[in-house]
Design goal:
The chain contains no helices and eleven strands. It has strands at residues 3-7, 10-13, 18-25, 34-39, 46-51, 58-60, 68-73, 78-83, 92-99, 115-118, 122-127.
Length: 128
């Protein structure tokens, strides 16, 4: 049974930083890409970032590019999302996600439909 557990959310001010973590169990972590999504109240869940299974390849939503960085530690079965220069519009519930299939090292899925497993989410609130 694949399980994803996020942590690291909180209440911060504009311009602050946070690092989210997602611990994965139940599968060979290093064989799969990983992703982060977020969902603000009244809005659809949206793609934030993805990382290939080796950690070399990454992809970002335009809204977070140059501010957020996704990384992974395959020895710890953990994926991270470093968020810098946070803005009020970054306020959302952040989800860690894992795809159903293992693919090439360059596979960095950005579509919701490509992901099969989800964490419970961690809340990030940015005050102005």
């Amino acid at each position: 049974q694949v399980q994803l557990v996020e942590s690291g959310g909180g209440l911060v001010q504009t311009g602050d930083s946070l690092r989210l973590s997602c611990a994965v169990s139940g599968r060979t972590f290093s064989s799969y890409a990983m992703g982060w999504f977020r969902q603000a109240p009244g809005k659809e869940r949206e793609f934030v970032a993805a990382i290939g299974r080796s950690g070399v390849h990454t992809a970002y939503a335009d809204s977070v590019k140059d501010r957020f960085a996704i990384s992974r530690d395959n020895a710890k079965n953990t994926v991270y999302l470093q968020m810098n220069n946070l803005k009020p519009e970054d306020t959302a519930l952040y989800y860690c996600a894992a795809p159903l299939v293992s693919a090439s090292f360059a596979y960095t899925p950005a579509r919701l439909s490509e992901y099969r497993y989800w964490g419970q989410g961690t809340q990030v609130t940015v005050s102005s």
